[in-house]
Amino acid sequence: EPEVTQTPSHQVTQMGQEVILRCVPISNHLYFYWYRQILGQKVEFLVSFYNNEISEKSEIFDDQFSVERPDGSNFTLKIRSTKLEDSAMYFCASSEAPGQAYEQYFGPGTRLTVT
Amino acid sequence: QQQVKQSPQSLIVQKGGISIINCAYENTAFDYFPWYQQFPGKGPALLIAIRPDVSEKKEGRFTISFNKSAKQFSLHIMDSQPGDSATYFCAACSGNTPLVFGKGTRLSVIA
Q: Which of A17, A34, B59, B74 has the fewest Cβ atoms within 10 Å of its own Cβ atom?
């Protein structure tokens, strides 16, 4: 069964450093998302991406964040200058088509620890 | 108005019992209501979902009940098993908008 994959599974970084989280969405999916989950809390939307551009973003997704689809398979989330409060699980998700954007499939997540 | 309120925060059920988790929403534009199951260290996995044109959807031991007038929906897990122990999130969205998640319910099924 196709699945969303994410790397690395765990990333430790120092405050102020840049990090890039990588995702490989399901191959025939066209909508891509990033969510985050602070430990013990609910899953929060960060950004959605379709047709090589951001389609929607939350207030969390400020200028420190950027997304990119550098090739036909990868989807990345970059945090330019990490803060302590960026420590969280980051989930990538994808869905098949705009009309079926409801059925989002999540990757296993990257645990980001900012020290 | 974008919130989805979920209860209870945690739930302990005997093996074989029925687990019931409830969610309520305010935004009447929401038209898709999925439930996600999350095991520790894993991403949320789509479990079952419903649209507001039906009042109930059943898949195996999992049933969603939907009350459009009350703006509430619930997940029922029949014959709960220890393997069902996980955190369950309800969510809602409309069109191509992002999913709005509830705060989650930690379910423990004890033998």
A: B59
Tens digit of each residue's pLDDT (9 = 90 or more) over A23-79: 999 998 989 999 999 988 889 999 999 889 999 999 999 999 999 998 878 999 999
Q: Are the beta carbons of A37 and A107 closer than 8 angstroms? A: no
Q: Does A32 touch chain B (CB under 8 A)?
A: no
User: Does the beta-carbon distance from B43 to A106 stay under 8 Å?
Assistant: yes
Tokens standing for residue A96: 């098949």
Between the CA of residue A97 and those of A18, A21, B84, what are the distances in Å? 31, 23, 30
Minimal CA separation from B47 to chain A, in Å: 10
Interchain CB contacts (distance < 8 Å): A and B: 56
Residue whose C-alpha is closest to residue B55's, from B33, B29, B39, B77: B33
Rounded percentage of chain A residues whose pLDDT exceeds 90: 74
